Amino acid sequence: MIKIYGLFIGTLILAGCVQQPERTKPIAPEVPTVVDEEVQELETIAFKVKLTEFSTGNPLANQTFELQSAKGELLGTGTTNAQGMASFEDVALGQEVNVLLESPVMKISRHFIVDNENDELLIETYAQNKAISVPILLQEPELPTGCEMTSLTAMLNYYGEPVTKEEMAKKFLKKVPLRIEGGKLIGPDPQDAFTGDPTSAKGVYVFPQAVVETAEKYATSVNEQFAASDLSGSSSQEIEKYITSGVPVLMWITRELEPPVTNNGWWIEGTMEYHKTFQNQHAVVLTGIDESSVTIMDPLKGKVVHDKSEFFTSYESLGSYAMTLYKES
Question: Which top-rank group of organisms is this from (predicted)?
Fold first, then answer.
């Protein structure tokens, strides 16, 4: 009897002096013949971009942007013509691209997949070197001390948001009343909250950081992408860059551009700091600027033109407070 030990690994291994089976020469596998195939070229088209001013639909000429691949590789740059159009040749169908438009104050990016039915991208952006068409919105009678919320609402309306000044003041603005504690009048930091209530004639005011936070709360509530920024401390030249790029700026000045008047005040809660109240503080939207004058949307008067130098002197006298926002999507 022959006993078989070992493992079966491809061939049978026999123990002892058992005669091994005759080995056969392995047959080499056939190597398939490589057939040259013609390389198929990718189909390409001319990819076009049209730039318009979002509030009027007017074409924007001489605007430079970049075309990038999905990986960020630069495919080219282009400048729009008088019809607001620019074209890139030989862009592959099905390719994912990013179109980037830059100005001195912002950067806008759009993602796009090129195909035969989507060979043109419309970008709505901001007018250059033109007066900004922020709508006239008056604060009275609903918000007698709500110049900041009225101005902010006008800016949001400019971007197509249907919100009202009353909604902004009631739902999104943080408000803290004054109170007497230990014989002292205690109130909030104006950068953190509105002192009192803008629906009351006894309301006081609020400063840029709290307005930025108010704008951000609104944007979150409607799922919109707004970039809100505190521009406090900016020079007139820096502010002007926003205006010439079509982005309005909310600015704190004095009424009638007179010197600031302070009187009384309150102790800022949680600190040893005493805040003197500005009696003639006002907030407006700067919408236009040239060599000698500025145009504003004044929530007490409507459209007003001021001397440029006097306007910025008033702005600086209150501490150079300003903020802005623009719509990213």
Answer: Bacteria
